[in-house]
């Protein structure tokens, strides 16, 4: 009889609320399992490997006092694959901003023009007339995607035949 009265006392509204809150707290206090991702394998390249697409990201800046450009490449990532289109290779003397792929001896393998991110072209309507305006900036992000020639060891960025920056292509990369 005493045990039945004790159970009835525990079953009051207050004690049920406390039990309910404890159940909620207990179910919410579990540890989350996180998956550990391992780094992708690093593989050395050879002239036989390929085809590869190279992604270069960084910044381009123009110093108006020195009248010179500078390019800083923050990352280069190479992935196995073939691009659908890369744009037309320069057949004559390239103009504006372009890059050239060079082999270990410095011989030019290919040249491709790049849209200059410092010259932002904006199209708008002035009333009913479409107009275009070019906004020149001093600094901008640079993103270049290119089909990598297997013999490429250097990529040189140029502006109207003036060398801006040469980068070495990593001998090892992430697949």
Give your account of this protein's structure.
The chain contains two helices and eleven strands, in the order ααβββββββββββ. With 175 residues, it is mainly β. A hairpin with a 2-residue loop joins strand 6 and strand 7 (129-136).
Helix-strand string: HHEEEEEEEEEEE
What's the overall average pLDDT, rounded?
76
Structural class: mainly beta
Q: What portion of residues belong to β-strands?
A: over 45%
The level of helicity is 10-25%
Radius of gyration: 31 Å
| Major sheet size, sense and barrel closure | 4 strands, antiparallel
Counted by DSSP, the helix tally is 2
Total E-strand runs: 11
Can you tell me the overall shape?
A: elongated
Low-confidence stretches: 30-45
Strands of the widest sheet, in order across it, are: 5-4-9-10
What distance separates the N and C termini? 74 Å
What is shown here, in short?
With 175 residues, this protein is mainly beta. It has helices spanning 2-10, 13-28; strands at 42-44, 52-63, 68-80, 97-102, 108-113, 119-126, 129-136, 139-148, 154-159, 162-168, 172-174.
Characteristic terms for this protein:
175 residues; mainly beta; four-stranded antiparallel beta sheet; 2 helices; 11 strands; elongated
What's the layout of helices and strands?
Blueprint: H1 2-10, H2 13-28, E1 42-44, E2 52-63, E3 68-80, E4 97-102, E5 108-113, E6 119-126, E7 129-136, E8 139-148, E9 154-159, E10 162-168, E11 172-174
Antiparallel strand pairs: 1-11, 2-3, 2-8, 4-5, 4-9, 6-7, 9-10
